[in-house]
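Q: Can someone sanity-check these two? First one:
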Amino acid sequence: MSEQQRFRLGVMWSGDRDTRRSATAQNNRLSGMFAALAEQGIATEPAVYSDDFVDEVRAQLRRLDGVLVWVDPITDGRNRSVLDVMLRNVAARGVWVSTHPDVTLKMGVKEVLHRTKHLGWGTDTQLYRDAGALHAQFPPRLQTAGPRVLKQNRGNGGQGVWKVEAVGDGIVRVLHARRGSVPEDLKLGDFLRRCETYFDNASCVIDQPFQPRLPEGMIRCYMAGDRVAGFGHQLIKALIPPPPEGPHSPEAQPGPRIMHPADAPAFQALRAKMEAEWTPQMMQVLDIDERSLPVLWDADFLYGPRTAAGDDTYVLCEINVSSVIPFPDQVPAAVARLVPGRLQAWRQRR
């Protein structure tokens, strides 16, 4: 029996008691990941998670060698605070966790946009540590720099992400990035007070310039460790005012995410930057070594201003490490090739 055949790995996603009871390697959105891991000779099992049965999942993980985690930062009003405590607990007892909560708090939060703004993917990104700083510093910046995008530190699905545009006399037009949202005009002070809850639990708010090329779409760069595993391009509708037909009309819905392999010609400039420059630089800034880098993560880019030569530039708008799905067909094999080495390195370090 080979070394990797002695590894036992859990694959975790959110679900209720019935989902946990009925889960198999084949009846879920991650079935391709299960199959790719099996081809590497790794024994896998579902580890469906909910805060309601966290102790049961903890006991399951403690008898495994590792776990791959797909759980959103915010789901149905719940965050990952209970889950992260449990994952730290099992990691301390020798279970390999990808992505470890400590790494998530470095990479998978909007603060990474500020910490890495000096890299080639950065822009004029500001950070507010408390409501006082937001109220004092954001209004003059909005007046001089044009439309901005405010982002709460941790979220998904557009939650806590707002386009803010001054329309005169202390009034701003705001648009939430959540699907179905419509523009709203209100006093700037009232809107900023609405954002004060984003500072709960010593969090922060990130402020970036609105990117005018947003209608050209978002490029999702899927990473298996420090290598590009594929791309997704999508014409998004978030932060774009809905058409006259309304926010729920077909015209207001985002386009499909078109998946591409890592060698897709249209994205080779971005791939070269990610692999040779931006990912190594990010790891250095965030103090993340290769063994701790998630086996699957993605970086979402918008098109920035074109260069004088007409070439595209790219602006990072988010890094996702909590629940990267869906993904291109090539991703499971790329991830599965990484996992045995990560498990072996973890076992030797223990």
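And here is the second, same format, sequence then tokens:
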Amino acid sequence: MSDVVFILGAGASKQCGAPLMADFLDVASRLLRTGQVGDKKEQFEKVFRAIGAMQAVHSKAQLDLTNIESIFTALEISNVLQKLPGFQPEEITEVIASLKEVIVKTLETTIDFPTSRSFIGVPKPYDKFAELVDYLRSEAFPNQTSSIITFNYDIALDMALFRAGMGPEYGIPPNSNSPTPIPLFKLHGSLNWASRKENGTVYPLQLNQYFSKYSISFPTERGTCTIPIGSQLKEYFSKHSDIEVKEEPVIVPPTWNKADHHQALSKIWGKAAKNLGEAKSIFIIGYSLPETDAFFRLLYAFGTVGESPLEQIIVYNPDKTGATDKRFREMLGPGAVARYKYKELRFDQSIEDIKSLFPKRK
């Protein structure tokens, strides 16, 4: 049971360097132009060639070719229809795989982790967020159990929980070796999740496993580094296990029908829904509830059906236009609206605000 459920969107990881979905392709294009994509150049070029080919579709219908969510959705539908301008039907799956590689490489390149000699730390403000989670379970009165739901693929949050000795526990084996792990449900997959070739089973590479085989050493006392865990997944499993995995990590489209991924991720979605139903407090941070995300609306609708009374639901988002607030108010039922607040705060600002809601024993 979780007293507190955090729901983190792309706006949370934006503060440690990750691009928002609307900016993702611009950042990826810049990385390609400046020669920062390494051996993934072919995959980047293939994706941008596909986007260029979609201009023919755009001339006859409205299609957002600047948003990676829209592109991901368009390619998934193209695969179902077996039709993509400029590509043979059998090539469409290759384009989708290339898009996943673009996502992996872009996130790995843009998020910097602080280093001290060979020690790799946690990017801000995830370090403070992990401290908040630990505070809730050990110092707040009464103590609060927590779980986290995220739509993000990157491992900045994973790293924060790992360094704080809190797992994470992904809800699928293998389990964390932490004695007191925090549940972390990554609804769209993760850079460190591999997919078995024979049956598609998701197999997370725990960070303690990864760092036991890979290390980074710097001559300077302090600096930053990137962690290419997604790019090294296949290498890790081929060298250090008898598990044969697919080339790219488990990256699930943020929109469109997730039925193809149901078998692999249904346990995670089910556990996320269960924790939502048990929560007394729900904090949604850096997520704008786009109109296209029917999946989250249904997850919230069915997940929040439970016996535990909801005491508060707070959305933290710097959007000052009122649009995000309006979407959440329209989604929530009358009982939840009575407990609902919208605060125009960034991820880092939300941490202290949430902490103030759970004081220590006087």
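A (reply): Looked at the second one. The chain has two domains: 4-16+121-203+249-356, 24-109. The chain has 15 helices and 13 strands.
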